[in-house]
């Protein structure tokens, strides 16, 4: 068995926000026959993650009840402190990964439905290769035309403290502190597209319609 096979990777989907700018639960926005969060979960489950942790908070029970995906690797975790910002969810997801023994984790945002499989695979495989080559903690972040996005791969994270992650920063403060950061240029504009407002949602509906048309 190779080292690559011995070091599984977990996925964490951050989806605990209150959707204050939207005015309704954006996790449950309908988008071409599926809920918004369902798009992200279904895409993550395509890949061989050891577990896919979905961190919910606001309207947690309602969201879990509505999402119609059943998979043994799918793990729902409620962040009781979701009002403290995205960093609280990051901590919850991080602890869940630590409990599995995984040395690598990819963090997704629950409001980014259009990440391509090609992009995720590129980040995933690059992270796995670097885990074979490096021993220090590192991060890999995709970049589109100079703008960093998600998902972010954290590697060699056993025992890595995340006490510096506070407020609504998510993992950004941790990224600044890691000695090894790798920016990965990609041709995927959707790594920076998330849905926060009604205008974003309208744009997402147009994108989903165009993607559906292009695959016919």
TrEMBL record:
<keyword id="KW-1133">Transmembrane helix</keyword>
<keyword id="KW-0808">Transferase</keyword>
<dbReference type="GO" id="GO:0016779">
    <property type="term" value="F:nucleotidyltransferase activity"/>
</dbReference>
<dbReference type="InterPro" id="IPR025877">
    <property type="entry name" value="MobA-like_NTP_Trfase"/>
</dbReference>
<dbReference type="Pfam" id="PF12804">
    <property type="entry name" value="NTP_transf_3"/>
</dbReference>
<protein>
    <submittedName>
        <fullName>Molybdenum cofactor cytidylyltransferase</fullName>
    </submittedName>
</protein>
<feature type="transmembrane region" description="Helical">
    <location>
        <begin position="36"/>
        <end position="56"/>
    </location>
</feature>
<keyword id="KW-0812">Transmembrane</keyword>
<keyword id="KW-0472">Membrane</keyword>
<feature type="domain" description="MobA-like NTP transferase">
    <location>
        <begin position="11"/>
        <end position="178"/>
    </location>
</feature>
<keyword id="KW-0548">Nucleotidyltransferase</keyword>
<dbReference type="InterPro" id="IPR029044">
    <property type="entry name" value="Nucleotide-diphossugar_trans"/>
</dbReference>
């Amino acid at each position: 068995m190779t080292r690559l096979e011995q070091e599984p990777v977990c996925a964490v989907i951050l989806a605990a926000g209150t959707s204050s700018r939207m005015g309704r639960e954006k996790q449950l926005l309908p988008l071409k026959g599926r809920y918004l969060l369902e798009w992200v979960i279904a895409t993550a489950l395509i890949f061989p993650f050891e577990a896919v942790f979905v961190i919910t908070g606001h309207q947690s029970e309602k969201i879990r009840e509505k999402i119609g995906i059943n998979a043994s690797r799918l793990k729902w975790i409620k962040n009781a402190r979701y009002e403290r910002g995205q960093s609280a969810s990051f901590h919850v997801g991080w602890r869940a990964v630590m409990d599995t023994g995984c040395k690598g984790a990819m963090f997704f945002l629950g409001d980014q439905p259009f990440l391509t499989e090609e992009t995720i695979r590129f980040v995933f495989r690059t992270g796995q290769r670097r885990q074979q080559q490096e021993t220090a903690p590192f991060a890999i972040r995709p970049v589109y035309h100079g703008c960093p996005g998600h998902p972010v791969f954290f590697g060699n994270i056993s025992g890595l403290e995340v006490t510096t992650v506070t407020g609504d920063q998510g993992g950004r403060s941790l990224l600044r502190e890691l000695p090894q950061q790798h920016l990965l240029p990609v041709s995927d504009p959707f790594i920076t597209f998330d849905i926060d407002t009604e205008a974003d949602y309208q744009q997402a509906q147009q994108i989903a319609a165009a993607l559906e048309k292009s695959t016919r």
